[in-house]
Design a protein that fits this description.
About 75% of the residues lie in helices and about 10% in strands.
């Protein structure tokens, strides 16, 4: 078991308060980065599919309704893309001088961790 601990690369956050294996923050930050890209792209694609269906049906009411829906989905896609940055900004404002929480948050979201 001791040999396994030497193989794993540990990282710390919060002035060495928390020590975890580097795969956990790496996995979480990768999932966040993938979600920032994939979710908005899927929202736009589904909006374009709905609008395309309405155009093919050639009903003016459906086209206008789906145009409005596409605009709303585009706004949602932009908000989803920037939600992590907004959360980081709010956390930095609310958190103030507590560098422990900020460094752990940064470690798990941006993978900026201190090697153990």
């Amino acid at each position: 078991m001791d040999k396994l601990m030497f193989i794993l690369n540990n990282v710390t956050c919060g002035d060495d308060i928390i020590t975890v294996d580097e795969t956990l923050p790496t996995a979480i930050s990768s999932l966040v980065n993938i979600a920032k890209i994939v979710i908005p792209v899927l929202v736009v694609i589904f909006g374009l599919i709905d609008l395309g269906k309405a155009v093919m049906s050639q009903k003016d009411d459906d086209i206008k309704k789906n145009q409005g829906l596409l605009v709303k989905r585009l706004i949602i896609a932009v908000l989803i893309f920037f939600v992590v940055a907004l959360v980081q900004f709010v956390v930095s404002l609310v958190n103030g001088d507590d560098s422990n929480f900020t460094s752990c948050f940064d470690c798990f979201i941006n993978n900026n961790c201190n090697p153990a």
